[in-house]
Specification:
Helix content is 82%, strand content 0%. It has one domain (2-84). It has helices at 2-16, 19-32, 34-47, 54-73, 77-84. The termini are far apart. It is built from 5 helices and no strands. The protein is mostly helical. The longest helix is centred in the last third of the chain and has 20 residues, at 54-73.
């Protein structure tokens, strides 16, 4: 269950990147898919989120984790800029 719903989250975030767009599509999905809605409810309960805040919480953590990956590759902005010829 957890794996499936988080994959849905990740796919939406990767495809739409902006929170509002991804969230709108997610809402449409759970309105039309009862199983997905149940999985989301279970995931929220297991993770300690309300259903209203669950997707937002995952989105924030995902984006933060994604940013951290880039920070570990280029720990300072000068190194990134030198590598890619940016100012």
């Amino acid at each position: 269950m957890d794996r499936d719903i988080t994959e849905v989250f990740e796919n939406l975030i990767q495809k739409y990147r902006e929170y509002e767009a991804a969230y709108e599509v997610f809402l449409t999905m759970i309105e039309s898919d009862e199983t997905l809605q149940e999985d989301y409810s279970e995931w929220c309960a297991a993770m300690g989120y309300s259903e209203k805040k669950g997707f937002a919480g995952f989105y924030d953590e995902y984006i933060e984790r994604d940013d951290t990956i880039w920070d570990s590759i280029f720990p300072n902005r000068e190194e990134y800029n030198d590598e890619f010829g940016k100012e």
